[in-house]
Amino acid sequence: MIRVLIADDHHVVRRGLLFFLKTQKDIEVVGEAKNGLEAVELVESLQPDIVLMDLVMPEMDGIQATKKIKEQWPDISILMLTSFADKDHVLPALEAGAAGYQLKDIEPDDLVSSIRQIINGENILHPVANSKLEETLREEENLPHVKNPLTPREQDVLAELTKGKSNREIAASLFVTEKTVKTHISNIFTKLEVQDRTQAALYAVKHNLTDGSSDR
Fold first, then answer.
1. Residues 22 and 99 in one domain
2. Same domain, yes or no, for 28 and 108?
3. Which domain holds residue 45?
4. What is the pLDDT tens value at each position of the chain, 216 positions in all?
5. Engineering a disulfide at 101: which of 4, 61, 80, 181 sits with its beta carbon 3.0 to 4.6 angstroms away?
6. Burial degree of 26 (CB within 10 A; 0-12, 13-18, 19+)
């Protein structure tokens, strides 16, 4: 069972998420939090596998709560579920440690799919959030130039990864097996000295590793 904690200050949102998630045989909602501070406290006592985290909440916002959770319990995943997709929210949320960023207008089935993919070690970005992320990072001045340590195939995988694609989607796009994709992603993490897909995507965009212009 995937143990889920819902953190949102709106009762109606929590009820809606609870109602749908309870219909999934492999998901168990273990608790609900009305604000970020309560979310941190419940994570400590309930130890969920994943937290569905709203961004704007009283007491402590979702970004602060995510930072505290990831500092103390790095194995617990965070999926941001919010109404905001602007640059002032997307990048800080990912830098805080969120493994996914989805908007609240997401279809229920897609939300469940996102939860399962994150639990399987993948990172999920809503297309709008992904677009804002790339736009924000490319606006930064004086981006450092680094030598690209990746092979051509690893760079292809990284380019697909930064688009928020799952391992299955990357495999289909590049005509390779999912096992091969997993191997390439593991090599990418090692070479870029990052811990997860979100960090790899951030690194890639910041250092222009997905446009083919870096040295090999």
1. yes
2. yes
3. 2-126
4. 999 999 999 999 999 999 999 999 999 999 999 999 999 999 999 999 999 999 999 889 999 999 999 999 989 999 999 888 777 788 888 888 888 888 888 888 889 999 998 888 877 776 666 666 666 665 654 555 567 788 889 988 988 887 778 888 899 989 999 899 989 999 998 988 887 877 787 777 777 666 544 443
5. 80
6. exposed
